[in-house]
Design brief:
The protein is an alpha+beta fold. 39% of the residues lie in helices and 25% in strands. It has a 3-stranded antiparallel beta sheet with strand order 1-2-3. Helix 2 runs antiparallel to helix 3. The longest helix has 14 residues. The model has no long low-confidence stretch (mean pLDDT 93).
């Protein structure tokens, strides 16, 4: 399981597994729980790299990032560390 504590966004923790290149067990703590729980369901079982590309550089309001932008960076870093 990969776990990340993002900075500069509402979510306090993000976690997931990568199994055969697909996201599994996606979870968010903090942030907009209804929206993040729905996103977690939507991306479960989807190709990790595809999801990362979809959310890369996503912004929230006037911030330079967002929970999903941070999630995308987290996925890409996890893939570099050996997520298959």
């Amino acid at each position: 399981m990969y776990v990340y504590k993002p900075k500069g966004v509402c979510s306090q923790e993000m976690s997931f597994d990568i199994v055969d290149g697909k996201l599994r067990n996606v979870a968010f703590k903090g942030g907009c729980q209804g929206n993040l729980a729905a996103i977690a369901k939507l991306v479960d079982g989807k190709d990790a790299k595809t999801i990362a590309i979809m959310f890369l550089n996503h912004k929230c309001g006037n911030r330079n990032t967002s929970c999903m932008g941070e999630f995308a960076h987290f996925i890409l870093e996890s893939l570099k560390k050996g997520g298959n």
